[in-house]
Design brief:
three-stranded antiparallel β-sheet; alpha/beta; 10 strands; 205 residues; Rossmann fold; seven-stranded mixed β-sheet
Length: 205
């Protein structure tokens, strides 16, 4: 890894990429599909907007995020979460009925780490469990005023606060998910995002 790349990765702040308001379409779709008692993992829970929404509907929700992001949450909100995992120490087991991954892959600068996330999600699901994946499309990212091309996406922001955003389109997301042993059940393009619902197809040999 070059010196420039190392320096840039140090200033990119993944924790600042979370959407601050509103429930994601992927969380609403998950809630519509699942039944009370299902075990749900919010992978990259961010500001907990989706997690708390699902908890309010009576679901058992666990979260996974960086230690810094988890430290930023209010203790009272965390008390309603079933289990809390950090990305660095999480060891996946086939335990969850559904995994929500909302606007996470698009903030990861390295494709290798995106693949690792999908592998961990696959290994976290019970047989037949479902992934609800939502990522940003190009049109919303290109509207951002302060952006520069970087690897397969853009570095966004001014001064010391910078984030990474990688735009995706529907067919590309479908191929990526299928490559990690998921069967696509639904996929559609929204105004600013792509939402894919996929079922765990099998285990890697």
């Amino acid at each position: 890894m070059s010196y420039f790349l190392r320096e840039l990765l140090m200033v990119i702040q993944v924790e600042n990429t979370a959407i601050r308001t509103g429930i994601s379409k992927s969380a609403m779709r998950l809630e519509r599909d699942c039944v009370i008692g299902d075990k749900i993992l919010d992978y990259g829970a961010g500001k907990l907007r989706n997690s708390l929404y699902l908890v309010s509907k009576g679901h058992h929700v666990s979260i996974l995020d960086t230690p810094l992001q988890i430290q930023r949450q209010h203790q009272q909100e965390l008390e309603s979460i079933k289990s809390i995992f950090t990305a660095e120490s999480y060891l996946p087991q086939a335990y969850f009925d559904s995994v929500l991954c909302s606007f996470v892959l698009n903030v990861i600068p390295e494709q290798r780490k995106r693949n690792e996330i999908l592998e961990k999600i696959h290994n976290s699901l019970k047989p037949g469990g479902r992934l609800y994946l939502e990522v940003r499309k190009k049109n919303g990212i290109l509207k951002t005023k302060y952006k520069e091309p970087y690897t397969d996406g853009f570095v966004i922001g001014r001064y010391q606060v910078k984030t990474f955003q990688r735009p995706f389109e529907k067919e590309e997301v479908k191929r990526l998910v299928e490559n990690h042993l998921f069967l696509i059940r639904d996929a559609y393009s929204l105004s600013d995002s792509v939402l894919v619902v996929a079922e765990k197809r099998g285990d890697r040999e």
